[in-house]
Amino acid sequence: MQLDSTAVLPNYYVGAAYCNLANTLTLPTNINSAAYKQVASRQKYYYSEARPYIEKYRKAAPEAKSKWAPLLYRIYLSLNMGTQFSEIEKIMKTL
């Protein structure tokens, strides 16, 4: 089965779903606890999974900044991706 490369919205929806999963997790207040590390790791996993989908959507729909920029902002911030975060932060200021 071959994927339709013109179908760009599925990339957005899959990436947004992973971001929403990361958002639903509540970090425990004790940052030294094993539970905190486990939840933080799960959040990082979800954001890592979301990243390629949202980046593909960004390339395919550069005019849809209001959709992909907030998600990439959250992804890059959460994954501590300084250079990419700075770029998206500038874009967010123009929205």
Mean pLDDT: 94
User: What's the total number of strands?
Assistant: 0
How would you sum up the global shape? globular
User: End-to-end distance, in Å?
Assistant: 38 Å
Q: What percentage of the residues does DSSP assign to strands (E)?
A: under 5%
Helical percent range? Answer: over 70%
Compressed to H and E, one letter per element, the order equals HHHH
- The value of Rg in angstroms is 15 Å
Structural class: mainly alpha
Oligomer: single chain
Please mark out the parts with pLDDT under 50 across 5 or more consecutive residues, or reply none.
none
Number of helices: 4
Q: In words, what does this structure look like?
A:
This protein has 95 residues and is mainly α. The chain is 74% helix and 0% strand. Helix 1 packs across helix 3 and helix 3 packs antiparallel against helix 4. It is globular and about 45 Å long. It comes from gut metagenome. This is TPR domain protein.
Outline:
This protein is mostly helical and 95 residues long. The protein is built from four helices and no strands.
Layout of secondary structure:
Blueprint: H1 9-24, H2 34-60, H3 65-78, H4 82-94
Key structural traits:
mainly alpha; 4 helices; single chain; TPR domain protein; 95 residues; 74% helix
